[in-house]
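User: what does the whole thing look like in 3D?
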Amino acid sequence: MGWRAMRIHDNRAWFLIAPALLLLGLVGALPLLAVINYGFHDIFTLADVHWVGVQWFADILASDRFLASLGRSLLFSTLALTIQVPLGIGVALLLLGYGRHAVWGLMLGALPLVVPWNMIPMLWLGLIDPQAGLLGPGLAAIGFDWKFTGWHTWALILAVDTWHWLGLVVVLAYAGLSAIPPAYRQAAAIDGASRWAVFRHIELPRIGGALAIVFLLRFVDSFMIYTEAFAINAGGPSDATRFLSIELGEEIKGFSYGQAAARATLYFLIVLAVVWAFVAATRERET
Amino acid sequence: MMRGLALLALAGFILLPLLQAVILSFTATLATDTVALGTRGLMNYRNVLATPELRAAMVNSAVYVSLNVALSIAVALPAAYALARTRFTGDRHFLMLILVFRVTPPVVLSLPIFILFSRFGLVNSPVGIALVHGLFNLPVAIWILESFIRAVPREFDETAYLDGHTGPSFFFRHLIPQIAPGIGVAAFFCFIFSWVEVVFARILTVTGGKPITMAIQAMFSFQTDMGKVMAMTCLSLVPGVAMIWFVRGHLAKGFTLRA
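Assistant: Here's the predicted 3D structure for the full assembly of 546 residues, as structure tokens:
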């Protein structure tokens, strides 16, 4: 509010955002329009394209496999967010107590973020390899079988996803928490507020912006998880980890470009709906 | 005490898979005439550096990531300035637009981007990947730079204007030195998102210009030399770890949702 009032109204600002709009138009808007357009066509080759109307959309929405995958992806996102957001905030709160030394924790948390995505499942499969892995023999001994037991595959993918992204949650939550003036916490301490009360009434309301972006980024990336899930078990065992993105990947690999484009459009609409609802809720709360 | 133990457990969780990779990278995992299986040493790293495709992949990745970081920041800076200092018709729509593109799953756009870029001759070229990674890095750079510019008081701009610095000279001589840490943080986040990305990097490198991620993928075969794969992986972490080290003091600035 204060921020909006402080700024002057000047439409020449459009010149300054023009380069950004140009780039996003080229790599964002144009491909997006193309994908929506393809979704209404049967694409045999690029020279042999037929209009099919909403046929692909109707097919996808009516298929039980799509609904099952949608359910799995929603469940996966819910689990990932439920584990990673509170855990990340918890770690950030712990680190806050270490003052200057907290930076070591942030650097450690950021490490998995610089690992190439396609190598992350390889690192973990190496770690849990029953013969050679550091954890493999132990896990095998307690009957952990990620290849053939569905919920074990789920647990593994969730662990890998948490390993990959916890650092981002910690860094952004820590950024929000450390920006709160210490006087706020001191005042609450003098009033004898419990740690939970300080968090609930002083810290949480002030890290909303940081948590909002964490929530959205983690939702989208977990909802569309592909690289890790495909490399670990390719959707198996018996479709237990067949997420939305894995279905899309199969169609692209099978050269069903029309169907794939319709499916991509649907996924985009789902993501858009969540983002829009989320932003609307955030703005509602602010005003 | 409990806090220390919790953080120690977390450190173990994060380091264990990396430790596994480092151990394997120093172990011979494929027996040859001269090296027995399980021997420890630097042979995997020597093999990686002796393979021209892998050396080329490191250069390719470095080139497009640097291009992307430079492009994202150059384009984001004026936009961030506009958002931080002025209100204009459609500013909220612009913020919503960059948020939507930041969260659009790459796999949704991969096919038309490939078709579009092959028309412009941008396939197999680092320029193509650098441009398309702007899709998710430009929004992040705008968010970070905007928050840093907002922290600079308005009077700073006015003093510079009075000294006769406007336009590019204001940006280069005044604003950029003032928000240097912000540029570092933005560069860090752009770097990590671009360096590790695989969907666009795969689809835009059909025959040449393969980045590290794809070069590693190509090492998997009937008889995969895991030691060599892990050596390549460990080498691929070096620039990222260096980036973390350089921005460590500013890592905690992060970025927040602006909508």
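In plain terms: Chain A has a mean pLDDT of 85. Chain A touches chain B through 96 residues (CB under 8 Å).
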